[in-house]
Design goal:
51% helix; elongated
Length: 179
């Protein structure tokens, strides 16, 4: 390819592919951070709703039996719904937390499983929150795949670099620049 040869042969125009891959990874990691921020805002909104309702209500029956957690570890965003069951007398209540299983195909929670544990007053907010979390996780999945692809491209570049040196382009036929 004549155009590629002429661009790669100019040292001032050559940008290391590894640098471009690294920049791409940094930008995609910023996307993951922003998706995590959105997830945290969504979780906070859910908790604000629950706390406001619980502050107005009395008795354990009006307390939510769901717990939503959201955290990030590396480039992985984890969003979990947990069922809470309370045991014991009023002064000595203890909780038992049980994870709610996700659909293994979609990695999302079944609405019916959430409904079993949600109170009537919170179920609409649970559905809305879960829908947003599903969208966030779907986007994060694709961003993480992009990061993995760039890392794989870096590995390929280490094994077979194409940094513009004539030795790296030796498989291409020589041209006289008139092609």
């Amino acid at each position: 390819n004549v155009g590629a040869r002429s661009i790669l042969s100019k040292e001032t125009d050559v940008v290391s592919l590894v640098e471009v891959y690294d920049q791409g990874i940094v930008e995609l990691e910023k996307c993951i951070q922003e998706l995590h921020n959105i997830a945290m805002t969504t979780a906070d909104r859910y908790w604000d709703f629950v706390n406001a309702h619980e502050d107005r209500s009395t008795g354990w029956d009006s307390k939510s039996s769901l717990q939503l957690s959201c955290y990030r570890r590396g480039n992985h965003i984890e969003i979990k719904w947990t069922a809470i069951k309370w045991y014991g007398s009023k002064g000595k209540r203890t909780s038992l937390r049980t994870p709610i299983t996700k659909n293994p195909d979609t990695f999302a929670y079944h609405e019916t499983k959430l409904k079993v544990h949600a109170k009537d007053w919170e179920f609409d907010m649970v559905k809305e929150t879960e829908l947003k979390m599903q969208l966030i996780l779907r986007r994060a999945h694709h961003v993480v795949r992009g990061i993995m692809s760039l890392r794989n491209a870096k590995q390929v570049n280490r094994v077979t670099p194409i940094d513009g040196s004539p030795a790296d382009l030796s498989d291409e036929p020589e041209t006289d620049g008139n092609d």
